[in-house]
Amino acid sequence: MEKVVRQLEDVTIRFAGDSGDGMQITGAQFTNVSALMGNDLGTFPDFPAEIRAPAGSLAGVTSFQVHFSSREIFTPGEQCDALVVMNPAALRVHLGFLRPQGILLVNTEEFKPRNLTMAGYASNPLEDQSLSAYQVFSVNMTKLTREAVKDLKLSVKESERCKNFFALGMAYWLYQRSMEPTVQFIRDKFSKRPELAEANLRALQAGRNYCENTEQFGSSYRVPAAKLRPGRYRNITGTTATVLGMIAAGQKSGLEVFLGSYPITPASEILHQLSRYKNFGVRTVQAEDEIASVCMAIGAAYGGSLAFTTTSGPGVNLKAEAVSLAISVELPLVLCDIQRAGPSTGMPTKTEQGDLLQVLYGRHGESPIAVLAGSRPSDCFDTIYECARIAVRYMTPVVFLSDLFLAFGAEPWMFPSSADLPPIPVRFRTDPEGFQPFQRDLETLARPWAIPGTPGLEHRIGGLEKEHLTGNVSYDPKNHEMMCRLRAEKIEKIAQEIPPTRIDGPESGDLLVVGWGSTYGAIRTATEKKREEGKSVSHVHLRHLNPLPPDLGSILYRFEHVLVPEINLGQLLKVLRARYLVPAVGLNKVQGQPFETTEIEAKIDSILRGEP
Amino acid sequence: MNQAAAPEIASRPLTKKDFESDQDVRWCPGCGDYAILSQVQKVLPELGIPREKLVFISGIGCSSRFPYYMNTYGFHTIHGRAPAIASGLRASRPDLSVWVITGDGDALSIGGNHFIHLLRRNLDVRILLFNNRIYGLTKGQYSPTSELGKVTASTPMGSIDYPFNPISLALGAEATFVARTLDRDLAHLHETLRRAAAHRGTAFVEIYQNCNIFNDGAFEVFTEKETKLAHVARLEHGKPILYGPKNEKGIRLKGFQLESIDLSKAEARMEDLLVYDAHCPDATLAMIVSRMTGENNLPLPIGVFRSVSRPCYDDSLNEQVRKAKEMMGPGDLDELFNSGDTWVVQPSS
Ligand SMILES: Cc1ncc(C[n+]2csc(CCOP(=O)(O)OP(=O)(O)O)c2C)c(N)n1
Ligand code: SF4
Ligand SMILES: [Mg+2]
Question: How many whole angstroms separate alpha carbon A482 and alpha carbon A421?
């Protein structure tokens, strides 16, 4: 039979299986190959909360989604065009994400009574017509893999382990992916076990051949390269971008990087990754708790390091008192909050934007702080770099907001050269002549960074109110008010360096959608679509959440309606309404999941139709 | 920056005066904190450390006002957290001499976690715990070292909260240097501070300190002329533990129990006495000795309970940084960006 190859612009595929099935590697390989073939990409892994859930259980399902395209894209995709499932539990958990008529590749081996029961199926869905809305391809991948490697004298377990590459081979045929990068990957990965390398290579090839040679598959698809900006790219997760941004800020400022941290999902991975870069002079400490980790960072900042502390929502609460100390003694520090669904332990492996008000206001006393948020995985690099620059320039703690969706999501990144990064000049005070610990720079209101070890600058700082200039303890009422105002004014001054706000779409019109953080991709995609439909819809995405961009008010006033979609119950919305007195409305979702583009589109449509 | 600098030679010998700041000392008249401040200011010139390399970090409490009165670098931080702030500073600045000043509430109540973890990690930091068995600054509530039954502002019917023994706690937390001294025994205080300063690793010194406002006389029997000799035993490494007005009493180990014997009695023999070993790698002996509290016919031990050597977290961390640079070469940012799988998008013609 002559097989046809159809061209598609944009595809989302999801690999789902048991924790032991190798779905993360499979997804990463598919991503890598697609990147090398020139597609634009967005990816997102989904892990079970349990570390070792029973095999075949719903709790043990893990998945990896790849959105690849021949145009520029901004999300890891929502509804899938293709779903690969390795067992009944994976089918049960993920079928809802497959679009009608979508491709469903099923490993039939695991569809046995015991596994079906574990997944909550009363009858076998492969046999009861319940999947008739999809293009189902039932293949016993495990058995075919065993056969492909049978003369290699591997144990049954080792043989069957290769089945993820069989599945990958099928996906490669289906979407006309090049095999070469994965072949190389397998050779490298198993260089010490050539028989395993051979087995996995055979499984990969067998999967592809199976599709090529059997009647079951009639057509495959091609997704041509995207027109991306010329340059050198790598694929990057929000976490890695954050880590590289920290190291880059250290190198460009000439300061040694210090990280104090306490493990918590989804921030731990930053600690893990940064710990590998000690050759950049990076010091990481896993402290006894979040309070200790921020305090260690403050101690390091006091000593002249570029100090970071990383955590998620619950840890931010614990750090709050110490952050106020850093605000009071005016030491630079970057607090990274990789948000997850709360309150309390909430849904620790799911995303949310629930901490904005906490980081803006969740401290005692008048304690203003700068807050910036990354908007897409690669943007975490620029944003944390900017956080570090502001921290040392203004001698203040700065909050970097990210979330689980950004941290684990990935996309191609045209990485900069270090020479192109903005400078981070740092000058420690060394001159004892006229030194006063709280004398301020006129432009930034920053106090001097006078670190221990400097002869002649011996002085005391502390959390008690300080007298203007001298820093001596002061209970003078007027002085306290002045210091509160000065600390607030210093944070407001940061606005002088915020570039003009970028507006996607018309400068004024019917509707402005304002977002922050990881909703960028969904809002961008939805608003572009509406403009293509001829509607007057613009998009502003805020990196700076405190202080807000100086031009934001005037932009808001130029639009008839303002919509603020957030993965919380309306936090930025409150801030904007209070600050600018605009009748903005929210689109709010707290399901541990990012927005789907269609949800935002629907809200836009209803606003433009004049519905309340 | 951040490199261990060779010790600088001060141009002239420093004196106590050099360590006095221009701030008025604000403790209550008669407070034991004065004596401790004065001894620290006297010891420092003997250490040969340049003034700019000294950093005093405190928590919150009367005792924690201490850094304001020292003409060195000083950081009055937040309640209980000084050990953590000191750890971050010391881990990143191995050239500095870092001292933590804390109280019994600060170190053992709100800061208990950081206290034990600093001891365990053994960063090269000194901790001076001013133990007055009371919350001074907040006006006289009981503390984690207050005795059972103590009547205070918050315990009108007497405390029902069993106290810590700070020396036992420190030993249990794997401390490498543990000592006790008294605000009223200036010579002993001086000597103990000197020994703590000489230790490489976390040096913990519990200082009994009289709060004459809220807990006056808490340590009277150990400090007053009439009673102290009968109740205080000075630990000396390699020597038997003796006490009494004429050193006529000694301590004998019987099983896991300590007992006091009177050497003036005919049947008592010097050879039966416990010879103290502060350098024993195992902390068991120190732990047993730390259980003596000056009650039940046993004396209160003062001096160095334990002084052993163990790698410091800060040294090990800096060694890893050095090794990483040696193995991988100093990091190159562009190489770092350009690592892993990369690809090039060509300009379309
Ligand atoms: C977070 C916090 N909780 C409570 C306090 C109030 N507070 C200040 S000092 C102190 C107790 C101090 O006792 P101690 O450490 O024994 O010091 P002392 O005053 O006896 O020297 C308390 C409860 C505080 N400053 N911060
Ligand atoms: S209250 Fe007690 S501890 Fe505090 S300064 Fe007065 S005497 Fe000293
Ligand atoms: Mg006290």
Answer: 36
Supply the ipTM of this predicted assembly: 0.96
**Sign of the alpha-carbon dihedral angle for A208, A213, A218, A221:** positive
With an 8 Å Cβ cutoff, is A462 touching chain B? Answer: yes
Q: Closest to B84 (Cβ–Cβ): which among A252, A279, A287? A: A287
In a domain, B281, yes or no: no
A4-222, CATH topology level: Pyruvate-ferredoxin Oxidoreductase; domain 3 (3.40.920)
CA distance from start to end of chain B? 49
* Residue numbers of B between 39 and 68 with CB closer than 8 Å to A: 50-53, 55, 57, 60, 67-68
Which residues of chain B neighbour A300 with C-beta distances below 8 Å? 88-89, 91-92
In a domain, B257, yes or no: no
Partner-chain contact A453 B53, CB within 8 Å:
yes
Cβ-in-10-Å burial (0-12, 13-18, 19+) of B192 comes to buried
Going by alpha carbons, the residue nearest to atom 22 of ligand 1 is B138
Distance CA B170, CA B282 (A): 14
Return the CATH number at B174.
3.40.50.970
Beta bridge partners of A135: A103
Chain B segment 307-326 residues within 8 A of A by beta carbon are: 317, 320-321, 323-325
Cα A163 to its chain centre, rounded Å, is 30
Using the predicted structure, report yes or no on whether residue B198 has a pLDDT greater than 80: yes
- Every domain of chain A with CATH number 3.40.920.10 lies at 4-222
CB distance B320 to B91 below 8 Å: no
Q: Is A425 on the interface with B (CB under 8 A)?
A: no
Beta-carbon count within 10 A of A354 CB: 21
Residues of chain A with CATH 3.40.50.920: 509-608
For residue B11, the model assigns a pLDDT of 65
Q: In this structure, which residue's CA is closest to atom 11 in ligand 1?
A: B135
| Residues near A112 by beta carbon (within 8 Å), at least 6 away in sequence | none
Residue A192 burial by CB count (10 A; 0-12/13-18/19+): exposed, middle or buried?
Answer: exposed
The DSSP result for A508-528, as a single string, is SEEEEEEEEGGGHHHHHHHHH
Place of tokens 């203040």: A396
Based on the structure, what is the number of domains in chain B? 1
pLDDT score recorded for residue B268: 85
Most A CBs within 10 Å, among B64, B90, B93, to test the A interface = B93
The β-bridge partners of A462 are: B76
Architecture per CATH, domain A509-608, reads as: 3-Layer(aba) Sandwich (3.40)
A41 SS3 class? strand
- Does residue B142 lie within any of the structural domains? yes
Q: Which structural domain, as residue segments, surrounds residue B38?
A: 7-227+305-315
CA dihedral defined by B218, B219, B225, B230, rounded to 10 degrees? 120
Cβ neighbours of A455 in B, within 8 Å: 50-52
Q: Does B9 contact chain A (CB < 8 Å)? A: no
Please list the residues that pair with A236 across neighbouring strands.
Answer: A411
Strands B177-182 and B300-307: antiparallel
Q: What is the pTM of this model?
A: 0.96
B121/A contact by beta carbon, under 8 A: no
pLDDT tens per residue, range A391-412: 999 999 999 999 999 999 999 9
CA of B90 relative to ligand 3 center, distance in Å = 25
Fold of A234-420: Rossmann fold (3.40.50)
Averaged pLDDT for residues A376-387: 98
The answer to whether position B99 is within a domain reads yes
Chain centroid to CA B270: how far?
A: 33
